[in-house]
Structures are given as C-alpha cells and as structure tokens.
Amino acid sequence: MPGRPKILSGRPWNLKVRLPPPAIILAMSVVSRQESPASPSSLLGPYCRGDYEALPDEPRCELIYGSLFVSPSPSLLHQLVSGILYERLRACAKGNGSRVIFAPLDVCLSEHSVVQPDLLYISRRRRDIVGERIEGAPDLLVEILSPGTARRDRGEKLRLYAESGVREYWIVDPTEQQIEFLHNEAGRFVVVLPMDGRYASQALPEVRLDLEALWRQLGEELAP
Predict the structure, then answer these.
(1) 10: closest CA among 160, 197, 193, 216?
(2) Longest C-alpha distance within the chain, in Å?
(3) Comparing C-alpha atoms, which of 139, 147, 17, 179 is closest to residue 75?
(4) Is-cis flag, bond preceding 104, omega within 30?
(5) For residue 101, what are the β-bridge partners?
(6) Selection from 145, 154, 138 nearest residue 106 by Cα
(7) Which bin fits 155, alpha (ψ -120 to 50), beta or left (φ > 0)?
(8) Which among 43, 63, 64, 60 is positioned nearest to 52, based on CA atoms?
(9) DSSP readout, 56-74?
(10) Average pLDDT of the chain, as a whole number
(11) Does residue 109 sit in helix, strand or coil?
(12) What is the dihedral of CA 12, 14, 16, 21, to 10 degrees?
C-alpha cells in the first residue's frame, strides 16, 4: 500500500500577515482579491452564485466561500504541463465513458463556491453532473501552481474540495516538477505516495501516471 505520511484538512493556520488592498472591479462594483490570505477564514464572504454569474467574462474570477478571486493569466510552463496531463488523463479515460475537461469551465460546488480548476476528470457514473457547467463535485480535480494561485490552491481550494466530496485532488508544482496526490477520506485529504515513480489512483483504478515519462516529455517540450 502507498504510504500516507500526513493529513491535510485545509483548516486555518494561526498566522498574522498584512494583506495587500483588494482590487476593485469597477464595472460591477464588486471587491475581488488578487490572492488569498495566509489564514483562510471560516466565515463566508458576501457573494453568491448569482453575483458570480452576473460578472463579465473578463477578468476571469472564481467564487470561493463567498469571496471573489481574480485568476491571473497562465504562463507557458503552466500551459505545457496542463496539455501533457490532459493528454495522459484522456488516455486513461479512453473507452470507459469518463470525461477529461480543461479550464476555463465553471464547476459549481455550492451557492457560495464556483471554481475553474485547471483540469477535471469525471467518471462515467458521475456524468450526470455535466452540462453547460459542472453541477457538483468531479471525481478528480487538478490545480497547477503559479505564484498568484499557490496559496489559494493549498488553502481555500484544498478545504473546499475536501468538504465538497471531490474524491481526488492533484496539486502540481511545474517548477519543482512535483505532484501531490491527495485522496479524500471522510471529508479530509490524505497524501498518497507514488511507487517506483508511478502513481495509481485509489479512487479511479484506470488512472495511472508515469511521472518520469511526464517530466521527460515536459523537458522535450521546453527544449529550444
């Protein structure tokens, strides 16, 4: 069995920091954050799904626990990793009725949270949540870290995905070439370690990932 060295519950930390002032989306008179606070609040913000749906398409935002967050434009490295993972997850889904979808697409997890994960994997038995938007928790969500989203991906989103019933969550660090594989157990995520450079999903038996091959392909894509 893969090792499980730590538990990630997404609970707030006892840290105090001075936050930058929020950005203002003037067209909608809505206050949005550029980044997450270091200590995620347990209180809901003032906004709901209806407010989110009334926003313009740009800038791209997410609604998390009632607060709006601006999503920065992804880097080339981010997009290359996203494309490689998409291809590999598509290969896993082939022939079994599962779907793999890349951002941007709204995933509606509650009235207070609508997110746009980088990648999502929906098994055949969960395909009833697929429509113009995703209405409910996908089986697997993937977030690729960037300087503007890393705190949110490891903080509010980790907590939200665990509480919403997302079965598996991958946090991808393209700079360090590392992936944290998190498996949901009773509303909390536990880390599952790859074995011999290969990852096998506990929630989705068809999902397997050769990490060495993945990072080697990234190196080839980045080569001049």
Answers:
(1) 160
(2) 53
(3) 147
(4) yes
(5) 120
(6) 138
(7) alpha
(8) 63
(9) -SSS-EEEETTEEEEPPPP
(10) 85
(11) strand
(12) 10
At 110-153, the pLDDT tens digits run 999 999 999 999 999 999 999 999 999 999 999 999 998 999 99
Q: By the 8 A CB rule, do 12 and 39 touch?
A: yes
Residue 104 predicted with pLDDT over 50: yes
Backbone angles phi, psi at 178, to 5 degrees: -135, 150
DSSP 188-217: EEEE---BTTEEE-SS-TT-EEEHHHHHHH
Taking the C-alpha atoms of residue 74 and residue 82, their distance in angstroms, rounded to an integer, is: 10
Between CA 116 and CA 208 the distance in angstroms is: 23
CA–CA distance, 12 with 25 (Å, rounded to integer): 27
How many C-beta atoms surround the C-beta of residue 20 within 10 A?
9
Which amino acid does the sequence have at 217? Answer: Q
CA gyration radius for the chain?
A: 17
Q: Enter the DSSP assignment of 172.
A: E
Paired sense of beta strands 134-135 and 107-110, if any: parallel
**Gap between the Cα atoms of 2 and 154, Å rounded:** 22
Q: For residue 111, which phi and psi values (nearest 5 degrees)?
A: -70, -20
Q: Dihedral of CA 126/142/169/191: which sign?
A: positive
The two tokens of residue 19 are 């936050």
Give me 171's structure tokens: 């946090």
Position 58 confidence tier, pLDDT thresholds 50, 70, 90: confident
